[in-house]
From TrEMBL:
<feature type="region of interest" description="Disordered">
    <location>
        <begin position="1"/>
        <end position="24"/>
    </location>
</feature>
<protein>
    <submittedName>
        <fullName>IS6 family transposase</fullName>
    </submittedName>
</protein>
Amino acid sequence: RAEVSHQPTRRRERQQIRFKSPGSAQRFLASHSAISDLFNVQRHLISRRMLKVFRSTAMADWREIVAA
């Protein structure tokens, strides 16, 4: 169990515990995965400078989406 605790499925299960109904958890997690992919960059693969560029681009995209 310890080996798989960090896999996406297990993380999703832990997040679902906080919701009262499976439907509300599913709605939240569906939108959350799309949004978190925008901000989640594999940090160990890129330099700090590029990470800052990616994050500022992601924030600009996020502000544009929210403003619409």
